[in-house]
Every structure is written in C-alpha cells, then in structure tokens.
Design a protein that fits this description.
The chain has a single domain, classed as Aldolase class I (TIM Barrel). The N and C termini lie close together (about 5 Å). It contains 8 helices and 8 strands; from the N terminus they run βαβαβαβαββαβαβαα. It is an alpha/beta fold. An 8-stranded parallel β-sheet has the order 1-8-7-6-5-4-3-2. The protein binds D-xylitol-5-phosphate and zinc ion.
Length: about 220
C-alpha cells in the first residue's frame, strides 16, 4: 500500500479550499505541491502566499516539490509557509549535499528529484542522507502528461541501490500515474504515488484515491 499524494497543480484554483477539503476527507496521505519558476521548467505555478493558504486548510503533510533554480535560497521560507517534505532537483543544485543538510536542519524531510534522463546512479553518494527520491516519470513542468515507461526500470535499479546500502528512502513516482500503471509501480518498489490529473479529472475523486490506495 503506497502513500498517495494528490497533486494540487491539477486542482481548481478558483475553488482551492473545496479541493483541499476533499483531500482532507479522502484516503490520501499527503498533499503534493509543485512550485515552478519558469526558469528550471518552462512553466510558472505559484509561490509562498498560495502555499501558506493551502497550509491553513490542509490537515495532511505538505510534500513540496521545487522545480526552481537556486532552491537553497528559500529553504526556511518554505518551512515557514508549511512544507513538511521539501524536495529539490538534483539538476538544479550544484551543492546538493549542503542543501540537503540545510533542509534537515530546518526540521523538514529532505527529498531529491531526478529528471527522466538522469540516471539513478547519480544518487549513490547522497542516498544515505535523504528521506525521499522523487523520480520524475514525465518531464517536469506540466500535469496531465504521458507516463514514461523507462521509469519502471529506474525504479528497480534504485531499489537495488537502497537495499545494497541498507538505507530506507521513500521512492516517489511523479507524473502520469494512473489506475492502470499504479499497481505495477507499487510492485516495482514505489512508496509514494503522486497523482494530479488522475484524481482531479475523475468524476469521483474520493473513489479514485481509494482505488490508488488499494494497490
Ligand atoms: C510535473 C509535476 C507533477 C504533476 C503531476 O511537473 O511535478 O507533480 O503535477 O501531474 P499528473 O499526475 O497529472 O501527471
Ligand atoms: Zn511534482
């Protein structure tokens, strides 16, 4: 059974409180929150005021995925805005080790996200320091994209690394997760499933979350 993290990027921003209450009463475990800066990715989502507003109503942990350059500049501000898990991109962070230490010192769980083209072997020297790997199964920037199948192989390879080193790090799959691939992802070792479009375009989001949770 995986942790289910609906992605707020696909929520109705004009009815954000309604959608947050839906997640609160659902079987979902976390809120997944995508922060995009228009530089690291070709899209802009939202920033601190919206994150703080979400935090005011959310009754579950906030899993904040930073798709921004220089994430180290804003660590305590994201903590103060309500982040519980803070994930930075390996590709955006030349001093990743320092950045991870700062996230943990700020009292949050630390995650590292990797783009579809980044090999999992790049995580070898940081894996024992982190709580979560966010494996991108689409190119970051947009919700509703098609799942990249190679993710399955990467998931197994990452599991080999974590079991060889005897570290317990959560593997999160982000992008294109649906009711068809979710079971196989859990079987391949995924601990956290992010789902945006699958949850929010569903006619019955509560039932869809429950189904994702059942795999
Ligand atoms: C993509 C974001 C994802 C996105 C997932 O850049 O990191 O979290 O919201 O949305 P779906 O599940 O629709 O692919
Ligand atoms: Zn994300």
């Amino acid at each position: 059974m995986a942790i289910i993290a609906p992605s707020i990027l696909s929520a109705d921003f004009a009815n954000l409180q309604r959608d947050i209450e839906m997640i609160n009463k659902s079987k979902a475990d976390w809120f997944h929150i995508d922060i995009m800066d228009g530089v690291f990715v070709p899209n802009i989502s939202f920033g601190f005021p919206v994150l703080s507003a979400i935090a005011k109503h959310a009754k579950k942990p906030l899993d904040v995925h930073l798709m921004i350059v220089q994430p180290e500049k804003y660590i305590t501000r994201f903590r103060d805005a309500g982040a519980n898990v803070l994930t930075v991109h390996l590709e955006a962070c030349p001093h990743l080790h320092r950045c991870i230490q700062e996230i943990k010192q700020a009292g949050m769980q630390a995650g590292v996200a990797i783009n579809p083209h980044t090999p999992v072997s790049m995580l070898e020297d940081i894996i024992s320091e982190i709580d979560l790997v966010c494996m991108m199964s689409v190119n970051p920037g947009f919700g509703g994209q098609k799942f990249i199948d190679h993710t399955f192989e990467k998931c197994r390879m990452l599991n080999d690394i974590t079991s060889k080193r005897n570290v317990s790090v959560k593997i999160e799959i982000d992008g294109g997760v649906d009711l068809i691939n979710a079971a196989a992802l859990v079987k391949a070792g995924a601990d956290v499933l992010v789902a945006g479009n699958t949850v929010f375009s569903s006619k019955d989001p509560l039932a869809t979350i429950e189904e994702l949770k059942s795999f």
